[in-house]
Amino acid sequence: MPELLIRNGYVFDPLNGIEGEGMDVAVKDGKIVERVGRKARVLDASGMTVMPGGVDIHSHIAGSKANCARMMRPEDHSRDPEVKTKYARSGVGHTIPSVFTTGYRYARMGYTTVFEPATPPLTTRHTHEELNDIPIIDKGCFPLFGNNWFVMEYVKQGRIEELAAYVAWMLEATKGYAIKIVNPGGIEAWRWGRNLRHLDDTVPNFDVTPREIVKALCQVNKLLDLPHAVHIHPNGLSEPGNYQTTLDTMECARDFRREGRPAMHVTHVQFTGRKGWSWADVRSGAPEIADYVNTHDHVTIDPGQLIFTNVTWMTADGPAMFALFKLAKTKWFNADVESETGAGIVSATYKKSNYVNAMQWGIALELALLVKDPWKIYLTTDHPNGGPFTSYPRVISWLVSNHARQKLIDKINKTAKRRLNLPGIDREYSLYEIATITRAATAKSLGLECKGHLGLGADADIAIYDIDPTKLDPAREYRIVRRAFAHAAYTLKEGRIVVKKGEVVRSVRGRTFWTKPKVSEDIKKTMMADLQSKFDDYYTVRMANYPIEERYLTASQAITTNAGV
Amino acid sequence: MPKATLQDVLCTFCASGCDNLEITYDGRIIDSARNGCAISVSRFTTSDKSRLLKPLVRKAGKLRPTTFARAVDRAARILNNAKYPLLYGWSQTSCEAISKGIELTELVGGLIDNTTTSCHGPTILGVQDAGEATSTLGEIRHSADLVIYWGCNPVHSHPRHTNRFTVFSKGRFRKTRKDRKLIVVDVRQTDTAKLADRFIQVQPNGDYELLTALRTAINGEQIEQETIAGVPVETVEEIADMMMECEFGALFFGLGLTMTAGKHRNTEAALALVKDLNFVTKFVIVPMRGWFNVAGANEVSTWQTGYPYAVDLSQGYPRFNPGDTSAIDAITRGEVDAALVVASDPVSHFPREAVKHLLKIPIIVLEPKRTPTSEAAEVVIPSAILGVEAAGTIYRIDGVALEAKKVIDPPIGVRPDVETLDTIIRRVKKLGARR
């Protein structure tokens, strides 16, 4: 692979503490190196911003529910076709783009790594089929554990070590990356049309509580020394007053903090950070949640920013989706997965004039602005729930510019405007902080040592934006910032130029990351005996046919950890 | 050579995805296939019957044996020269092959459609209108205390369905036949109906009316007619009560709904009925997909193009408009000027008007066995049988992806579809795709 020198750009590399310094970046064999030879190709980045490639921690881009949503919503695609080019396959947008388009659109924004945050283990073979097909970007997926029968039974019996061995087996069997919990216990209750709203409710037929499930899985995460924290979507999603459940959920992880790494990541908090008793008096729980995050080190969050547009809601939280369907009255898809989890999909439109929508928009921004440390909050729209991932540049413009926010605040529902704290918050993100929440902090949170920075040995995943930080004031010229982040001047994937002036000029194959924790043979043996004795009773697929073999991943990248069991 | 046995083999006949077969074989000969249904046994043990073994190309009106390279070249030229080629079939091959098929369609600027177009296409249109409340089959096995088969006859079409997933299965919360009620709705008393607690004989083409009446009853409205599609109003109300009083209901439906009068209006009504029931209790609906990978054809097509079937790629981007971009319609209108048929037999199954035009255009067939379509073809390339002689991914009725295994070697010189299609793609690229 030829050598490359990115010359004279303003580099923003928060993991190495580099803030807008004018410098060169040398690339060889897909990695960042100290220096390259004279014959190296030179990429002139004078007057431009250079950042590590974007790393998205939470975006529903692949798998059974994404595909059900695509199938159910032809009206979503027909207005956003993507024509084939010399380098790129054709496809469709918009809220649930087809796979090729997903890869291209991320790359065009300078993103090079994306994680699918909820895959039912039983249908993860499907998820990998789609991930294999997504070009350019690296990816991974988080299998769902919060309503799994084996998990709940081990929790009930208090057999944490066997549970850890089971989680390790599942991560390897599904080629998954981290522990995901969605509405712990509540989806099992949905089997009978019910839901669990609080941490101490009891899961029907299993006699465990969401609190016990969450605590046990946090403990397992620590025992297995997994690269990422427990990634959780708490109980009571979208219901007024649910911020207290979110805080209680955060508290569950307090005893399982890990050396220098958070124990829990609470996702799309905008949906679970609501005060109030009814839809008419939903208030922002952002100050309380931000306060908790500011004063505790074991938890990180992402807001799941809302965009005023047409969206597709999709989540493993079947009961929450049914509740929202009753409000939205549009199209509803439900897909329960045996012995494991569920899924719900609803199409919807967020309106500025709608009180609750306006509050959601404001709560998400309040979270982003009130959490002081940008290493504890990451940029997401919970694609496609809050808005499509292609809206990130717009969200960035709201974060860097109070003026941009205030202009929109004037257009939202008047009651919401009055009740939000947002109009009084004047914090503006710097480009350094934007680089933190979009790549450095997410890569760190995922435990991806070769991503999210431009230090020696890092993957040469690089985004170059047409922003001259010495001349441009982002707060005033937020439109330019938005445009620049929407169309990267260059995106490099492992040293290869894949995007130029916002257009794909080359398609490469990304890798799929997964975790392979090593547990002791004794514990594994006990666990396997349990599994074999019950598997045929629980599943309609034979145990021998359940694991996904490594050859199934077109570019597999395993991360091995040594478990303490 | 000693006999060998392979365990946990997936059956590639219907879309039930039975994956516990035990296959005993001796070299290329399969002796037995245990644990499966009668169809499954036949699928495996007669896999060597009426096979196509050599690539064939039509010369002077007759199909004559040729080499693989020549057959591929001829196929590539036909596709490359066509203005609006149709690439059709896909429900009995692997997802990997389907993926290649979409790539090839994009390359030659054609139309790709799968057999959904003539079976559950209306189901998908119904879902696009009304959504769908569904689940994997295991959920039904564990929880369903009410099972309804509507316009389908699984005893014959999906022989192990009742044993593995419904009334005769053992789940966590429902152990025996007594724990479940079975209702069958059909126009005649099928063998499945004979197992039912209640058999409802609906008049032919009366499904929409009956479904609407059930919705009326469930929503607490008064039905004013005495009989609905041949069913007394008391029975309708009784069935509606059974539906509302169950803890977990499951409705399966087949071509009796999708291909009778009303088509996607029938499926929409069924989907809406189940949606309504979820306001009262828990209920799921599952279409009885036929071929073992027809669901996979929809899945791959959807994640790559956004649309599950009838995808027109002639403009350089995906377009979906069934009735316009669906295979039968495009052929009948005489727009299609070449066809690649993979693992399907449209000459037998399509309406006469469509077949008439199909017989006028060059057809390329990828197929393991002789069919009426292969007899009418310009180029025939034999395929390895998926799940017997070739491995690949397939999707079960409920969207669970499974891997079909390779048990024995294919006949010498016979390749899996994915390989053949890849070679055709490379050949087309070399010929310089005009678009």
Notes on the structure:
The complex is a heterodimer of chains A (565) and B (435). Chain A is built from 18 helices and 25 strands. With 565 residues, chain A is α/β, with parallel strands linked by helices. In chain A, strands 1, 2, 3, 4, 5, 20, 21, 22 and 23 form a 9-stranded mixed β-sheet that branches. The longest helix of chain A has 18 residues, at 521-538. The two termini of chain A are 42 Å apart. The model of chain A has no long low-confidence stretch (mean pLDDT 97). By secondary structure, chain B is of the alpha/beta class. Chain B has 2 domains: 56-118 and 292-385 and 411-431, Rossmann fold (3-Layer(aba) Sandwich); 121-287, Dimethylsulfoxide Reductase, domain 2 (3-Layer(aba) Sandwich), CATH 3.40.228.10. Chain B has helices spanning 38-45, 68-81, 95-108, 121-130, 137-143, 154-157, 161-164, 207-218, 233-245, 255-258, 264-277, 294-305, 327-332, 346-349, 352-358, 372-375, 417-431, and strands at residues 4-9, 21-26, 29-34, 56-59, 62-65, 85-89, 111-114, 132-135, 146-150, 181-186, 198-201, 227-228, 231-232, 248-253, 282-287, 311-312, 319-320, 338-342, 363-367, 379-382, 392-395, 401-404. Chain B has a 9-stranded mixed β-sheet with strand order 5-4-20-19-18-6-7-16-17. A 5-stranded parallel β-sheet of chain B has the order 11-10-9-14-15, sandwiched between helices. In chain B, strand 21 (392-395) and strand 22 form a beta hairpin. In chain B, helix 4 (121-130) crosses helix 11 (264-277) and helix 8 (207-218) packs across helix 9 (233-245). The model of chain B has no long low-confidence stretch (mean pLDDT 96). The chains are: A alpha/beta (565), B alpha/beta (435). Strand 18 of chain A pairs parallel with strand 8 (132-135) of chain B.
